Amino acid sequence: xxxxxxxxxxxxxxxxxxxxxxxxxxxxxxxxxxxxxxxxxxxxxxxxxxxxxxxxxxxxxxxxxxxxxxxxxxxxxxxxxxxxxxxxxxxxxxxxxxxxxxxxxxxxxxxxxxxxxxxxxxxxxxxxxxxxxxxxxxxxxxxxxxxxxxxxxxxxxxxxxxxxxxxxxxxxxxxxxxxxxxxxxxxxxxxxxxxxxxxxxxxxxxxxxxxxxxxxxxxxxxxxxxxxxxxxxxxxxxxxxxxxxxxxxxxxxxxxxxxxxxxxxxxxxxxxxxxxxxxx
Length: 280
Description:
minor pseudopilin epsh fold
């Protein structure tokens, strides 16, 4: 072997050339990029899937309430990241509003005052002569002392509307038998907030409810979902928007807040300028 050929052989055995090193690094970077892209795409697909499932459940509940003639609600637990459909045992009513359309918030002191008034009214009526006469005509003396007698007349109470009891339901169709069970969001997703047209402010903790009525109506609502690892950005986030009259559900990218008008008599013209309706 000549010295020249021996030198070429030594250089080939010494290691990789610069071009070969660059090719290896390029292939490695390409593989890492493909892995990261697949992970990101998988997370985005998971967020899209869950958002679509929530939107489809809202559409189903809207049609279910209209067909069955019953009251339904979607219970959303922000702490446990779950939602479930529930049916009421009786009719329900929305919170009261004042003359300007604002939600009437009843304070704890007002509730205590109402309880005190009810108690005084009950004591005043039950101790009156009319109450004793009605109890005597109803045969209270014969059934006195039997608390299990359904026909026994006792002290009357001030009638107050009680909220209906919502509970899970069993659908007749086997394919829909799991709709009453809570659906849990994946660990990497979070419910940012829920606000309906009857909420004074967005709900960020605890539970939120979206109601559906047999007349074919629901509440205006914005449900915001986001991936946990992107809390400071508007990316990888969706807002489920519910229209109250038609039950139409649309999904918008990003976190979109529900804005309620301060006065329902106010309107906006074609140029976006606020117009106030005035009386003379």
